[in-house]
Amino acid sequence: MRTMLLDTFNCPIRWPDMVETMREQGITKVCISGPDNLFGRVNSTGENFEVLAIDARKAMRPRVRQRSARRARR
């Protein structure tokens, strides 16, 4: 694991290739953690995916449940 992490500093990530592969795999939403949210600011990310910035405050907030379509018709 240590070697893999250190290799990311020496080997650039080809982000357009990553985006293409993620789209081919059917990924539609990307969750970005941390204060910087760098990947959310990259144009190819925002144009191809729904980008959700996640931080500790948002993670601890209760979710608002959406009503199902079946219940909404009643």
Care to describe what's here?
By secondary structure, the protein is α+β, with helices and mostly antiparallel strands. The chain has a domain at 14-61. It is 53% helix and 14% strand. It is built from six helices and two strands, in the order ααβααβαα. A two-stranded parallel ribbon has the order 1-2.
Can you describe this structure in just a few lines?
The chain is an alpha+beta fold and 74 residues long. The chain is built from six helices and two strands, in the order ααβααβαα.
Topology:
Elements: H1 2-10, H2 15-24, E1 29-33, H3 38-41, H4 43-48, E2 50-54, H5 56-60, H6 69-73
Parallel strand pairs: 1-2
How are the strands of the biggest sheet laid out side by side?
A: 1-2
Number of strands: 2
Q: Return residue spans where pLDDT drops below 50 for at least 5 consecutive residues.
A: none
Strand content: 5-15%
Helix content: 40-55%
Largest sheet: 2 strands, parallel
What key phrases describe this protein's structure?
74 residues, 14% strand, alpha+beta
